[in-house]
Amino acid sequence: MNRILATAASEFRIAFRNRWVLIATALMVLFSLVLAAAGAAPTGDVGVDRLSITVASLTSLAVYLVPLLALLMSFDAIAGEVERGTLPLLLTYPVSRLQILLGKLLAHLAILALALVLGYGAAGVMAFVTDPASITALPSLWRLIWTSVLLGAAFLGLGYTLSSLSRRPSGAAGLAMGLWLLFVVLYDLGLLALVVTDSGGALTTHVLPVALLANPADAFRLFNLSAASAVAEAGGIGGAASAIALWKSAASLVLWPVAALLLAWAAFRKVTP
Amino acid sequence: MTSTLKISHLTKRYESVEALRDVSLTLEPGMRMALLGHNGAGKSTMMKIILGLVPFDGGEVSVCGGAPGSAAARAQVAYLPENAAFHPALTGEEQIRHYLALRGEDAGRAGELLERVGLGHAKRRRIGTYSKGMRQRVGLAQTLIGRPRLLVLDEPTSGLDPVSRRDFYALLDGLAAEGASILLSSHALTEVEARTDRILILARGRLVAEGTLPSLRHEAALPVTLLVTPAAGAAEPLAAALPGAEPTADGRLRLDCTQADKLPLLARITAQGERVADLDVIPPSLEDIYTHFGHGEAA
After folding, report:
1. Do B99 and A91 touch (CB under 8 A)?
2. Residues B134-193: pLDDT tens digits?
3. Residues B216, B184 contacting (CB under 8 angstroms)
4. A88–B71: do the CB atoms touch at under 8 Å?
5. Average pLDDT for A256-270
6. Domain boundaries defined on chain B
7. Smallest Cα–Cα separation from B244: which of B232, B228, B231, B260?
């Protein structure tokens, strides 16, 4: 455990020096405030508090931004060590490869969590200032934070996997961007095409729910939207969301980080310095 | 006391290339062993096998009684890679603190370790601003953590100035005196000559010679060179008295002879009396021995 913490402390320091902490936090705060401000306009008489609307907007933002930040922080993790030539020495130390990965994960998660809390927090404060009734939506903000951390953990693990597989930072960066595009953009486009062509057939009812759960980004969106609709009864947000039980998307969100870490471990073990 | 490192019949193949073939060696506590060989002779590969970084195909390797790369072995082995590299964003002190923590040692000792390698003044600067020699010293500092039983040093003095080299070898002498075994590779043959107990020569993945420097000299049976400086005006009669002597560019006479002929030849030279102003005996250098064994072995 001490070795994991020591690795995490070192990684956090490096990320801090490389301005990653600053960049991640600034990005999250900036985007959150913009969304909070933009979301303030069309409310009025919807009958929903400001924070609920802000959280709904932040959910859509997080689906894109959290995986992106996670991949940006993780693609260099192993490939960078290989390129700098620091990996052989590190691997002769009495520290296992899993401990190294866990240390990096811990540091990167801490940075991500910091950025999320400050970013969402800023948006939350803005909602409270303009609408004191927002206090009722506090649980949904909290839910958004921890699910975002889980989503980030999944993509951090996937980033380490790509970093181990490519062994060169430039290659890993390319793969990471490809993965982001695939999971966050193309995947949903594909599912949309499926729904349109199938028009309510067996594919939509059977394949679509599984396909949504199989993608951590979709599981994240699903969980937050269905949880929100359960609370605020803001129906119509997603037909698919209500069709899938809440525990399923929650399970997907928890299982993905574990699976991604195991994948990263398997890939890292194959790296011969 | 058991051997710190025992390798028997080690074989390693990279696809069709045989990187190491039937290499055996034993390293006892307190012994300093130098590994010599051209680039690609298999030195770094052998070191990486000992460290457990690279798997091997045949033979047996035992490091501090365990398998190479096992937790027990890693806890007792220190490594200095060729061209030691560290994250440029960390300071020397932060980097050493991290390594101390990974070995379960008190991170507060980082400053003291950096003092020992002469980096105390720069410990709060980022490694990115260090020169190559300074990075090499950070590498040396981390090998001193936690009293290792075996030190594996790949080209440890590259990038160090002569004074630092002397300090470095003094440091190694101290560690060896405390019972640590040292395996180092080097291109600087002259410094290895005086500072190691045993010399190993690798050529094309095979161990072509092993022993102390005198025993290798004896085995190679290379000629000894004698350089005679004639007294003023005595160059010509001296040359005539010593058949086979070749005049050198600086006015001296050069004679090559076998080890067995050395003493009779010396007697003949000293018999010339006042015609001889000075005499130097140059034994075959490690470089010559190295060349002899390195090339003598047919592929």
Report:
1. no
2. 898 999 999 999 889 999 999 888 778 888 888 888 888 888 999 899 999 887 676 777
3. no
4. no
5. 95
6. 5-218, 223-283
7. B228
Supply the pLDDT for residue B50. Answer: 93
Cβ-defined contact of B94 to A13 (cutoff 8 Å): yes
Q: Which CATH superfamily is domain B5-218 in?
A: P-loop containing nucleotide triphosphate hydrolases (3.40.50.300)
| Residue A30 Cα, gap to closest chain B Cα (Å) | 27
* Distance of alpha carbon A188 from alpha carbon A21, whole angstroms: 30
pTM listed for this prediction: 0.85
In CATH, the architecture of B223-283 is 2-Layer Sandwich (3.30)
- What mean pLDDT is predicted for residues B7-32? 88
Q: Is B284 on the interface with A (CB under 8 A)?
A: no
Interchain proximity A88–B99, CB inside 8 Å = no
Selection from A243-252, B83-92, B248-257 with the highest mean pLDDT: B83-92
Tokens found for residue A188: 């949903």
- Is there a contact between B81 and A89 if contact means CB atoms under 8 Å apart? yes
**Which residue matches tokens 């102003």?**
B277
With a cut of 60, say whether residue B297 has pLDDT above it: no
Q: Which residue of A has its CA nearest to B71?
A: A94
Residues of B in contact with A7 (CB under 8 A): 98, 102
Q: How far apart are CA A192 and CA A186, in angstroms?
A: 10
Q: What is the pLDDT of residue A236?
A: 42
Structural domain spans, chain A:
2-269
pLDDT for A149 equals 96
Q: In this structure, are residues B247 and B236 in contact, taking their beta carbons and an 8 Å threshold?
A: no
The burial class, CB within 10 Å (0-12 / 13-18 / 19+), for B279 is middle
For residue B75, pLDDT over 80 is answered with: yes
Interface mutation vs chain A, best among B14, B76, B87, B90, most A CBs within 10 Å: B87
Please tell me the distance from the alpha carbon of residue B296 to that of residue B299, in angstroms, as a whole number: 9
Mean pLDDT computed over every residue of chain B: 86
* Closest Cα in chain A, distance from residue B6 (Å): 18
